[in-house]
Amino acid sequence: MNCEDPHSKSLSSEAIERLLGSRQQFLNFLARRIESRADAEDILQAAFVRGIERGGSLRDDQTVIAWFYRLLRNTVIDHYRHEGSARKVVEEWGEDLETMADPNDSLKDGICQCMASLMQELKSEYKQALEIVDLGEGTLSELAEQAAITPTNAAVRIHRARRALKKQVELACGACAEHGCLECGCRSSSVLG
After folding, report:
1. Closest CA to 18 of 74, 67, 72
2. φ and ψ of 111, to 5 deg
3. Check whether domain 103-192 has CATH 1.10.10.1100, yes or no
């Protein structure tokens, strides 16, 4: 009994040679549809891998070029779908940040004073992210621009920075951190301040 999946066979060596021989045409096709040449290169490489893995169902090596163009079109659509989803998430995070209320001055004064000292222990890009977005009340777009990264990467960076700072506070402040660092009485605030 043969349990081999017919779709698991890879392309013939002749078909692979035809695809590789058309690499520049495929790249030109993608470059006209994708804003970044580097992204077009990445998409082409991923499509080659997918095509080689899934192309075994092709019956005729002569149709491999047309088949691969269909694969590239679908990959471009997937790229923009993913990019659109990521952009939507960043926009929603931005809207959430804009609608958050600022704490009043008495609450700000009661918050643990260890934070500024503990921020110095973070990686420089995390410190920058916190200074721009949380302390400077900047936007993710401003962080992205100043750090020369995409808005999606800026959202990830601020999330990681906050998580790293939280770990630092928990290590330094112990029980105070468990209660939200309000009315800080930990030893670190007198030692660090």
Report:
1. 67
2. -75, 145
3. no
pLDDT digit string (tens) for 176-189? 555 555 555 554 44
Going from N- to C-terminal start, the domains of the chain cover: 6-86, 103-192
Model confidence over 65-77: pLDDT tens digits?
888 888 898 888 8
Are 76 and 33 within 8 A, CB to CB?
yes
SS (H, E, C) 71-135: HHHHHHHHHHHHHHHHHHHHHHHHHHHHHCCCCCHHHHHHECCHHHHHHCCCCHHHHHHHHHHHH
Topology of domain 6-86, CATH? Rna Polymerase Sigma Factor; Chain: A (1.10.1740)
Burial of 81 (C-beta count, 10 Å sphere; 0-12/13-18/19+): exposed
Reduced to 3 states, what is the DSSP secondary structure of residue 137?
Answer: coil
How many C-alpha atoms does 30 have within 13 Å on its Cβ side? 31
Euclidean distance between CA atoms 139 and 185, whole angstroms: 32
